[in-house]
Each structure stands twice: as C-alpha cells, then as structure tokens.
Design goal:
By secondary structure, this protein is mostly beta strands. It is built from two helices and nine strands; from the N terminus they run αβαββββββββ. The protein is elongated.
Length: about 150
C-alpha cells in the first residue's frame, strides 16, 4: 500500500505453467517467449541464482545447449551471465528461489513507466523535542510505477 507494485506484481503479468514443478525445461522458456508482449530487442531474462544449475544443462531436441555462457560481457552496457535463445540473462536476488513463481521471467523494462510527480520535499520541525535541543526531519517523495 502506498508504493509502486513493481514489474513482478503488475496486474498485466502473464504466467505460464511449468512442464515439471521446480524444474526449468526448454518448453517452459519457449512458452514464455510465445506469450511475451514486449519488444524482443529489449527483452531480458531475470532469474534467481538457484536456477543456474538447471539453466547450464538445458538442451534442445538436437542436444545443443540453450544457455550460452558470456561472463563479463555486456549488451548495451548491461552485464549479464549468458543468453537463453539469444536473450540476455541477468541474475538477481530479487527473483524468487527455484520452484517458486517468479524464479525466472522474461521482461521488457522499456514498458515500465515511472511517474515522478514532484521533487523531494524536506520539512523540519524545531518544536518536536524542543526541551532536548533536537530537530525532526521529514522527507516526502511522490512516485509511482506501472508496467504498460
């Protein structure tokens, strides 16, 4: 209440069912791409580090690895650990652990809108705790975010 929902909790979020619970399969990722509504040029996979052991082992029907390791490489100045189907993968502790909804997701951050209503407002009260020679400061910032 009173703060932006964030991209993972947006009401326009689209989810797909897993082929096997608590496991990442190539078909799960293909279903995510098929239902993806953003720009593939701006697409990025976000996942929890607990997904990495399974991502490294993913193979297509011909035995080709789907995850390509690209440590210390960047696309448009953004560090990523590799790619899945050519889309950069970023690891974040903000994603849920493997087996929990949100452990891996496909996002277009160009579709996330931040509304910054006004600048930072600072207020001071000299009256509060007057007897102890203390002042109280209050900082107010009005901001919201929504995935379009």
């Amino acid at each position: 209440v009173g703060k932006p929902l964030g991209i993972k909790c947006s009401p326009c979020r689209v989810t797909v069912s897993r082929a096997t619970a608590s496991q990442v399969h190539p078909i799960d990722l293909v279903k995510m791409i098929a239902r993806y509504k953003g720009s593939l040029d701006r697409a990025v996979w976000l996942c929890n580090q607990t997904c990495l052991p399974q991502l490294y082992l993913l193979q297509d029907n011909n035995g080709n690895f789907i995850f390509v390791n690209n440590y210390n490489t960047s696309i448009q100045g953004v560090k990523y650990v590799g790619t899945l189907f050519g889309i950069p993968v970023k690891i974040t502790e903000k994603a849920e652990a493997l087996g929990t909804e949100g452990d891996i997701g496909l996002y277009d951050f160009g579709q996330y809108i931040i509304a910054d209503r006004s600048g930072l407002r600072v207020e001071e009260s000299k009256d509060y705790l007057f007897n102890t020679d203390q002042r109280v400061w209050r900082f107010i910032k009005r901001v919201d975010g929504n995935h379009g």
